[in-house]
Amino acid sequence: MSEWQVKRLSGSLGAEIRGPVLGQASGDEIDQIKSALVEHKVLFFPGQSISLDEHVHFGEQFGRIESHPNLKNPFTDHPGVFELAATQGGIADEWHTDITFEAQPSIMSVLHMVKCPDVGGDTMWTSLERAYAELSPPMQELCESLTALHDALPHNRPDKMAVHPVVRVHPLTGRKSLYVNEHFTRRIVEMNWSESRALLDYLTEWVKNPRFTLRYRWTTGTVAMWDNRCTQHFVLNDFEGERVIQRVTIMGDEVTGAREPKWEPFVRPGPMSATSRHDRQLALYLKAQGKGSNQPEQLTAAKGG
Ligand SMILES: [Fe+2]
């Protein structure tokens, strides 16, 4: 990569790369970009001029691509491209890893900033490897023993669910990441609801520690790509006017945990009560997997006075 300029952007993750022309990149250049992505987790290529077809072709060199499973493009009718426009509600201003409600969430995304505001609309990323590494050993051990239920409730599709380990292992590096996010993660499977809420509140706040993050100021034409297996991101909703991104999403692989889950799923036993509703989503998931003996439909129907 000697002829490329690579500038790290924070202590935890991210690098800006100048030199490659992404619309024509192939072969060794793609391999160099793959290596840089593993090393830095988020890459930015300012000043690119890339067509929709070139964008898709570039993404295809990293794996199978897919458009968004739930959301529609506002302007672009191109298979394989997912578009978000601020004026159409497309501002992802909650920390998340993309589409973790899928059994095999995307492994990376390639984003083209088509239009950005003069001020504001920055995006932040956080390193989930750093977030995991800086937990205490007892908290690391607890988290490695747990799984979490994710769902697409933010897209009005709570029926789309997946369970993933709370700590996942990166298939290329073997490094561990803390794999829960405030947008899609609903419940620790092996804990009761109030314990789950306390732990998820803690972990989803912990990953926001500024020490683990970078904040990127966009310019039109910048292409970014991130490793979705070990990062979360967040858009600052602090701007006026239009902000349009086009994204190619490279699909997914099995999410591998650090170890097997240590305990069975927990749905509160005994007669139903007002708090039974908190177990409903998990009970629905377990029933769909053929693992549940409760009546999830009735878990919202307990009578109270
Ligand atoms: Fe996202």
Task: Note down, in words, how this protein is organized.
Helices cover 19% and strands 26% of the residues. It is globular. The chain is α+β, with helices and mostly antiparallel strands. The mean pLDDT is 92. The strands form four sheets. Strands 1, 2, 3, 4, 5, 6, 14 and 16 form an eight-stranded mixed sheet that branches. A three-stranded antiparallel sheet has the order 13-7-15. The chain folds into two domains: 5-116 and 218-250, Clavaminate synthase-like (Double-stranded beta-helix), CATH 3.60.130; 127-207 and 257-265 and 274-294, Double-stranded beta-helix, CATH 3.60.130. The chain binds fe (ii) ion. Fe (ii) ion is lined by residues 92, 96, 98, 233.
Question: Main sheet, how many strands, which sense, barrel?
Answer: 8 strands, mixed
The span between the termini is 69 Å
What share of residues is helical? 10-25%
Q: Number of DSSP helices?
A: 6
The CATH topology of the largest domain comes to Double-stranded beta-helix
CATH class of the largest domain: Alpha Beta
**Ligand list:** fe (ii) ion
Kindly estimate the percentage of residues that lie in beta strands according to DSSP: 25-35%
Unreliable segments (pLDDT under 50, ≥5 consecutive)? none
State the domain count: 2
Any idea what the CATH superfamily of the largest domain is called? Answer: Clavaminate synthase-like
Provide the structure class. alpha+beta
Integer average pLDDT: 92
* Beta-strand segment tally: 16
Rg result: 20 Å
